[in-house]
Amino acid sequence: MKRSPARNADRAQINVERQSVDTTKFTIPIEPEGKKEARRTRGGHVFKHPDTRKRMDEIAESICSQYQGELLRGPLQVLIVAYRSRPKSKPKAVYVDVKPDWDNISKLVCDAATQSGVLWDDDCQIVDGRSIKLYAPPGEPGWIELFVRRHPAATLSKQAAAVSTEALWDTMYVA
Could you give the number of structural domains in the chain? Predict the structure, then answer.
């Protein structure tokens, strides 16, 4: 079966994009915590929890010290790997199945990256995100790894993006 030149061009474009997407990694030496909810007073005033504000400042400072590039524009992919300190009661466990919830860790890290003002304009640019909670090796303190890259389908034609989206669904949950 012979393919049309347009289809071959779209496939070639997909392969070029996969190879040219650069991932930036940040290692944040902070024990993972979830973002605590904002509190409201009876008068309607909203304020952030002091611990959340402190953690966001620490994460933003860490990102600022590691990234010197331009603001990332357009759709982004993000992977957050949160390594928690391993309790003595779980010497062989790999995945953390206790609080904080993965989405609260993600909110804290992404909001702090927005607050830093050096990585992206707003975390609404994240169109594809994943968060994983793991235990750190025994005796090591917890830390967070943040991987950021431009979404590979951001510059593809609509037809090529549809092909890459199909491939994404086929491979998304394969271990």
Answer: 1
